[in-house]
Protein backbone atom coordinates (compact mmCIF):
# COMPACT_ATOMS: atom_id res chain seq x y z
CA UNK A 1 0.00 0.00 0.00
CA UNK A 2 2.87 2.36 0.73
CA UNK A 3 4.18 1.87 -2.82
CA UNK A 4 0.85 3.02 -4.32
CA UNK A 5 0.90 6.20 -2.21
CA UNK A 6 4.44 7.02 -3.29
CA UNK A 7 3.60 6.33 -6.95
CA UNK A 8 0.52 8.57 -6.88
CA UNK A 9 2.52 11.27 -5.13
CA UNK A 10 5.27 11.07 -7.76
CA UNK A 11 2.72 11.40 -10.60
CA UNK A 12 1.00 14.38 -9.01
CA UNK A 13 4.35 16.13 -8.77
CA UNK A 14 5.53 15.30 -12.29
CA UNK A 15 6.63 18.36 -14.22
CA UNK A 16 4.35 19.70 -16.93
CA UNK A 17 6.25 19.01 -20.20
CA UNK A 18 4.26 21.56 -22.29
CA UNK A 19 5.62 25.10 -22.93
CA UNK A 20 3.80 28.26 -23.95
CA UNK A 21 5.45 31.20 -25.72
CA UNK A 22 4.45 34.23 -27.77
CA UNK A 23 6.20 35.81 -30.76
CA UNK A 24 6.64 39.57 -30.99
CA UNK A 25 5.08 41.45 -33.90
CA UNK A 26 6.21 44.40 -36.01
CA UNK A 27 3.52 46.29 -37.92
CA UNK A 28 3.87 49.19 -40.35
CA UNK A 29 1.55 52.18 -39.86
CA UNK A 30 -1.92 51.62 -41.28
CA UNK A 31 -1.43 47.87 -41.66
CA UNK A 32 -2.74 44.91 -39.72
CA UNK A 33 -0.64 42.14 -38.24
CA UNK A 34 -0.76 39.28 -35.81
CA UNK A 35 0.80 37.92 -32.67
CA UNK A 36 1.44 34.19 -32.51
CA UNK A 37 0.95 32.24 -29.30
CA UNK A 38 2.61 28.83 -29.51
CA UNK A 39 1.96 25.84 -27.30
CA UNK A 40 4.84 23.37 -27.60
CA UNK A 41 3.67 19.76 -27.54
CA UNK A 42 6.32 17.11 -26.79
CA UNK A 43 6.49 13.92 -28.84
CA UNK A 44 3.90 11.28 -27.85
CA UNK A 45 1.79 13.90 -26.03
CA UNK A 46 -1.40 15.71 -27.05
CA UNK A 47 -3.71 18.59 -26.20
CA UNK A 48 -7.49 18.66 -26.31
CA UNK A 49 -8.94 21.53 -28.37
CA UNK A 50 -12.01 21.83 -26.15
CA UNK A 51 -9.69 22.49 -23.20
CA UNK A 52 -7.74 25.29 -24.93
CA UNK A 53 -8.31 29.03 -24.80
CA UNK A 54 -6.21 32.09 -25.57
CA UNK A 55 -7.50 35.44 -24.36
CA UNK A 56 -5.97 38.87 -24.04
CA UNK A 57 -5.32 40.34 -20.62
CA UNK A 58 -6.23 44.02 -20.94
CA UNK A 59 -4.34 46.74 -19.15
CA UNK A 60 -4.14 50.53 -19.54
CA UNK A 61 -0.66 50.48 -21.10
CA UNK A 62 -1.71 48.26 -24.03
CA UNK A 63 -5.15 49.81 -24.76
CA UNK A 64 -3.94 51.49 -28.01
CA UNK A 65 -3.57 47.99 -29.52
CA UNK A 66 -6.85 46.52 -30.80
CA UNK A 67 -6.79 42.75 -31.22
CA UNK A 68 -9.30 40.27 -32.59
CA UNK A 69 -10.32 36.80 -31.51
CA UNK A 70 -7.66 34.09 -31.33
CA UNK A 71 -7.71 31.68 -34.28
CA UNK A 72 -6.76 28.03 -33.75
CA UNK A 73 -5.61 25.72 -36.54
CA UNK A 74 -7.73 22.63 -37.19
CA UNK A 75 -6.79 19.65 -35.04
CA UNK A 76 -7.25 15.94 -35.62
CA UNK A 77 -10.45 14.17 -34.62
CA UNK A 78 -9.36 11.02 -32.83
CA UNK A 79 -10.83 8.52 -30.40
CA UNK A 80 -10.69 9.88 -26.87
CA UNK A 81 -8.17 7.69 -24.95
CA UNK A 82 -10.37 8.05 -21.83
CA UNK A 83 -13.49 6.96 -23.77
CA UNK A 84 -12.68 5.22 -27.08
CA UNK A 85 -16.38 5.23 -28.07
CA UNK A 86 -16.24 9.04 -28.48
CA UNK A 87 -13.95 11.35 -30.41
CA UNK A 88 -12.32 14.68 -29.55
CA UNK A 89 -10.35 17.22 -31.52
CA UNK A 90 -6.70 16.89 -30.51
CA UNK A 91 -3.28 18.29 -31.34
CA UNK A 92 -0.24 16.02 -31.22
CA UNK A 93 2.20 18.68 -32.46
CA UNK A 94 2.97 22.31 -31.66
CA UNK A 95 -0.11 24.53 -31.86
CA UNK A 96 0.27 28.02 -33.39
CA UNK A 97 -2.61 30.30 -32.41
CA UNK A 98 -2.90 33.56 -34.36
CA UNK A 99 -4.21 36.66 -32.62
CA UNK A 100 -4.96 39.41 -35.16
CA UNK A 101 -3.75 42.94 -34.43
CA UNK A 102 -6.37 45.10 -36.14
CA UNK A 103 -5.21 48.57 -35.13
CA UNK A 104 -2.48 50.37 -33.20
CA UNK A 105 -3.11 54.04 -32.45
CA UNK A 106 -0.93 55.83 -31.59
CA UNK A 107 2.12 54.12 -33.05
CA UNK A 108 4.61 52.86 -30.51
CA UNK A 109 5.88 49.81 -28.66
CA UNK A 110 3.40 47.91 -26.50
CA UNK A 111 3.54 44.76 -24.40
CA UNK A 112 0.48 42.52 -24.75
CA UNK A 113 -0.34 39.81 -22.24
CA UNK A 114 -2.26 36.66 -23.09
CA UNK A 115 -3.80 34.10 -20.78
CA UNK A 116 -3.40 30.62 -22.24
CA UNK A 117 -5.38 27.69 -20.84
CA UNK A 118 -4.91 24.07 -21.92
CA UNK A 119 -4.84 20.47 -20.80
CA UNK A 120 -2.06 18.21 -21.94
CA UNK A 121 -1.94 14.44 -21.87
CA UNK A 122 0.07 11.40 -22.86
CA UNK A 123 -1.50 7.98 -23.40
CA UNK A 124 -3.38 7.36 -20.13
CA UNK A 125 -2.08 10.28 -18.05
CA UNK A 126 -3.37 13.85 -18.17
CA UNK A 127 -1.95 16.78 -16.28
CA UNK A 128 -4.30 19.10 -14.43
CA UNK A 129 -5.60 21.93 -16.66
CA UNK A 130 -3.01 24.70 -16.84
CA UNK A 131 -3.26 28.47 -17.22
CA UNK A 132 -0.19 30.53 -18.10
CA UNK A 133 0.40 34.18 -18.92
CA UNK A 134 2.72 35.02 -21.83
CA UNK A 135 3.78 38.37 -23.25
CA UNK A 136 4.49 39.63 -26.76
CA UNK A 137 5.86 43.02 -27.80
CA UNK A 138 4.06 44.81 -30.63
CA UNK A 139 6.02 47.56 -32.41
CA UNK A 140 3.96 49.70 -34.76
CA UNK A 141 4.62 52.84 -36.77
CA UNK A 142 6.37 54.45 -39.73
CA UNK A 143 9.69 52.95 -40.73
CA UNK A 144 9.22 49.85 -38.58
CA UNK A 145 10.93 46.82 -40.12
Outline:
The chain is 8% helix and 55% strand. It has one helix at residues 2-12; strands at residues 19-23, 25-28, 33-40, 46-48, 53-57, 65-67, 76-80, 83-91, 95-104, 108-118, 120-122, 125-126, 130-141.
Description:
With 145 residues, the protein is mostly beta strands. It has a single domain, classed as Sandwich (Immunoglobulin-like). The chain is 8% helix and 55% strand. The chain is built from one helix and 13 strands; from the N terminus they run αβββββββββββββ. It has a five-stranded antiparallel β-sheet, with no helix packed on it. The N terminus is likely disordered.
Write the layout of secondary structure elements.
Layout: H1 2-12, E1 19-23, E2 25-28, E3 33-40, E4 46-48, E5 53-57, E6 65-67, E7 76-80, E8 83-91, E9 95-104, E10 108-118, E11 120-122, E12 125-126, E13 130-141
Parallel strand pairs: 2-13
Antiparallel strand pairs: 1-3, 3-9, 4-8, 4-11, 5-10, 6-9, 7-8, 10-13, 11-12
Amino acid sequence: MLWVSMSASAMAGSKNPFRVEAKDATIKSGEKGQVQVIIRVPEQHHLYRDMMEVSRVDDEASKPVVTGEASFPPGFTKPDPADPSSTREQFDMDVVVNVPVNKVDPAGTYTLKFEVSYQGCKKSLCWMPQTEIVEAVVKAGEGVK
